[in-house]
Structure formats: C-alpha cells, structure tokens
Amino acid sequence: MGTFINVKEVDLTIFPDTNGALSAIISDLCQTSEEATVPVATPCVGSDLDDVVYQQIAEILRNQQNFHLEGYKTLCIKRRMAARIRSAGYKDPDAYVTLLQKNIREQEHLLAALSVHVSHFFRNKSVFHALDKQIIPALLKSSRRNKSKLRIWSIGCANGEEPYSVALLCQKQQLKGDLLSIVGTDLSPEALTRAKRGIFTAERVQNVSSSMLTDFFISRDQQYQLIEPIRERVQFFRHDILIDQPFYRANLILCRNLLIYFSREQQQLIIEILAATLLPGGYLVLGRAETMASACRKLFVCIDPAERIYQRIGIKEDCETG
Q1: Summary count for the chain: helices (H), strands (E)
Q2: pLDDT, average across residues 211-227
Q3: pLDDT tens digits, residue range 293-302?
Q4: Burial tier of 246 (Cβ tally within 10 Å: 0-12, 13-18, 19+)
Q5: Looking at residues 254-276, what average pLDDT do you find?
Q6: At 173, is the secondary structure helix, strand, or coil?
Q7: For 70-86, what is each residue's pLDDT tens digit?
Q8: Measured distance CA(312)–CA(256) in Å, rounded
Q9: Angle at which helices 189-197 and 104-113 pack, to 10 degrees?
Q10: Fewer CB within 10 A of the end CB, N or C, for the chain?
Q11: Among the listed ranges 30-39, 216-225, 297-306, which one has the minimum average pLDDT value?
C-alpha cells in the first residue's frame, strides 16, 4: 500500500479558543444505516435509554470533554448513545457508564457516534451549483477589488468533504492562497483526523467531475487523496459554536443540518452568533430542512429560498428577543 502525504499542522491563531468541542451535528432522528446494522442486545439500551443513565453520560461528556448536551433534542441523542453502547458490546448501560468514566478513548468514540460523518463531495448538487455560479463569484469579485482575504467557515464538517468541495470551487476561480481562508470545524477528533488526511472512498467522491478527480486527487488502492495544495487551503479545528469564540469576519458560512436538532431557543442563539460573525453582505447557507429563526429574519435577505441561502444585511445588531 502506498504512503499518503501527511497534512501540515494548522494555524491555531485563526481561532481565539480552540479547546472546546463543536456542538455535535446529531444524525437523523430515524435509525441510520450504522444503527440498523448493530444487533440489539437488550431493550434497556434501545431508544428508551434510562434518563438516569442519560444524565450520567451527559455529565461525563460535559466534565471531561467540555461537550454540553443542553438544548439538543433528547430522543435523537439517546438513539445514538444506545447504538454506541450496543456497538461497544455492553448489555448493561451501568457497566458502560463505568467504562466511559475512566476511558478517554471511549469518550472520543461516543463523541464520534454523536456526530454525522456520512457525507460526500458536493452533497446536494444544487446548493453547490448556486455557490459556484452565484455566491462564490460575487465574493471573489469583492475580495479582489478590496484586496481582502475571503473567509469561509464550514460548521460540522465531518471528514472534510464540504470545506474541501468549497476549496475546489475556489480553485476553479484561481483565487490565490493568500487571499483565501477556509476553516472546517467539528466535534469529533476522529473525524477531524480523517479530514486532515484528505483520503476518501470512491463513494465519497462520486459527485466530483472527472476533470477535478484527475487534476486534484491521487488514486491509490481504490481510494482518493486530495493533493497537498488543496488540503493546505483548509484548516480544521475542534470547536463548539455555543461555547467557543467564532470565526469572526466571515464572508460565507455553511451551517447545514445542524439547527434541526436543537430547541427553538438554541436555534435562535446559533443564528445570532452566525449573524454577528458574518460581515455585512456575507452569506449563510442552512440545510434544506431548516428555516431562519423568525426573530433574526430582519438581519438577512433570502437569496435562494430553495437552497436556504441568506445574505447578511446592515450592521451587526442583536436579534429580537420577543
């Protein structure tokens, strides 16, 4: 097997604080393929995970991993926890809690189970078509005119497919590296490690054009690795949108399929954070199943209702709280 190129270390000066954990983008409320393939051990570790066990696990994650479950929809969290308990081979949830308390590695496995890592390049092609034809050209024109750096933030980036997809679109526009900063953030250290390596299966790159695949990927052992110049355009961090300081003065933020797993109050808080993070005229992309919090709509113009693309207007201001 060939040796893949190691990615360079990221520049930690981009974020004021990189010690937090990105609020997990929890997987589908319904069972995922991963859940479906895990044999059920006992009813006690099903979706009806005991509330006491749930709170014990939440406390461990909060105290030892700085990951807070407050504001998430409990049912989908319980499903993912139950799947991880079964996958770890435990029939007794209390025994799993004992393991989790002492085993940092298992804590990381659980965090990975709570995060979405099933993605691929140019997922939802129509969104990336809008970015390619409308949003990125407009941002690049402004960046070149003002000789300012274009800053892009992909929240919940999983294995890096989304920020790398954006990097490939920027490469088409021949934007110089010193005028572009792309950041991908996620909860899971395991996912971020994979993202930095930039190695993907054929399934993950199925939406990549043949010309891009030839020009920007190295094929080895039925896998594809992005070439180093593209990988160097994206920096990855573990980050919590509700705790850590955001990536300020962003021109484009992709926050797809995160809000739907939070309470209404937390959804509004996240939109407030993103609104304050975006420069006036910057763009926010949400998931198709998500809508803008009503109290924050005065801060954005909807550019593309179908693709949930919004443009920041005016100056930085607070959302209504009523």
Answers
A1: 12, 10
A2: 95
A3: 888 899 999 9
A4: buried
A5: 88
A6: coil
A7: 767 788 788 888 888 98
A8: 17
A9: 70
A10: C
A11: 30-39
* Superfamily designation of domain 125-312: Vaccinia Virus protein VP39 (3.40.50.150)
How deeply is 43 buried, as exposed, middle or buried, from its count of CB atoms within 10 A (0-12, 13-18, 19+)?
Answer: exposed
The answer regarding whether domain 33-113 maps to CATH 2.60.40 reads: no
Is the predicted pLDDT of residue 320 greater than 80, yes or no? Answer: no
The shares of helix, strand and coil residues in the chain, as percent rounded to the nearest 5, are 45, 15, 40
What predicted TM-score, i.e. pTM, was given to this entire model?
0.72
- DSSP H/E element including 34: helix 33-37
State the span(s) of the chain assigned CATH 3.40.50.150: 125-312
Q: What is the DSSP string of 230-283?
A: HHTTEEEEE--TTTS----SEEEEEETT-GGGB-HHHHHHHHHHHHHHEEEEEE
Instruction: Report which residue type is found at 116.
Output: V
Of 28-32, 133-137, 187-191, 281-285, least confident by mean pLDDT is: 28-32
CA distances from 281 to 56, 61, 129, 312 (A): 44, 37, 20, 5
**Which of 148, 173, 56 lies closest to 107, judged by CA?**
56
